[in-house]
């Protein structure tokens, strides 16, 4: 079986390329599941209930979120009705929304959850290592494979979580930095790993935003609006092939443009 995990969707350009390519990729690559991080889907910051529905209708099975989960006003009131959307699992328990999603195909149950890293991150969650352990223990017997996403800044923290979960999950894949890393690999006990799968959106940009205002901010420190850029739009993500036991057998990073 196979799943594709799509990196941070940035604004309208990211949403449009996901809608354009998801059905094609599912058919051509034989994908059983498509999961996407959507936390920057609304103008580059956060997401709304209506955008979640559009992304899911375009062919995505599960949407994960990150530290920008509450950026859009009122989303905390919408998330509870979205059964295929999960916010970071290590946020305070009082936060609304699901801390995981389980999707099924042909009898195979894939558990999807996200943990926030704590190093250099503004949003402070509980320990991602202990949270992941608790999630696997709590749901034991209810899943056949696991995609554990770590939404974090530090590569060391992401690598450490990969080794911590090696052999216990199908994949540990990272998001947040919007820059793909060149370390897609199978760990010793057949867990697929990659520090960051990269963003899905405009690459003629600075992390998805228009170039000039970002440079200006670095030069003089004055506040500016960072609009979402539009050039060189790509879908980036990682495809993982795995067996019936939920062990990864192949991992491949993808960077694709619309035809």
Describe the structure.
The protein is α/β, with parallel strands linked by helices and 259 residues long. The chain has one domain (2-256): Purple Acid Phosphatase, chain A, domain 2 (4-Layer Sandwich), CATH 3.60.21.10. Helix content is 25%, strand content 27%. It is built from six helices and 13 strands. The strands form two sheets. Strands 1, 2, 3, 4, 11, 12 and 13 form a seven-stranded mixed sheet that branches. It starts with a strand and ends with a strand.
Task: Assign the CATH topology.
Answer: Purple Acid Phosphatase, chain A, domain 2
State the fourth-level CATH superfamily: Metallo-dependent phosphatases
Q: How would a textbook summarize the main sheet?
A: 7 strands, mixed
Low-pLDDT residue intervals, each spanning 5 or more residues: none
Tell me the helix content. Answer: 10-25%
- Structural class, judged by helices and strands? alpha/beta
Distance between the termini: 26 Å
Order of helices and strands: EHEHEHEEEHEHEEEEHEE
Shape descriptor? globular
Number of domains: 1
CATH architecture: 4-Layer Sandwich
Q: What is the radius of gyration computed over CA atoms, rounded to a whole number of angstroms?
A: 17 Å
User: What value does the average pLDDT take?
Assistant: 97
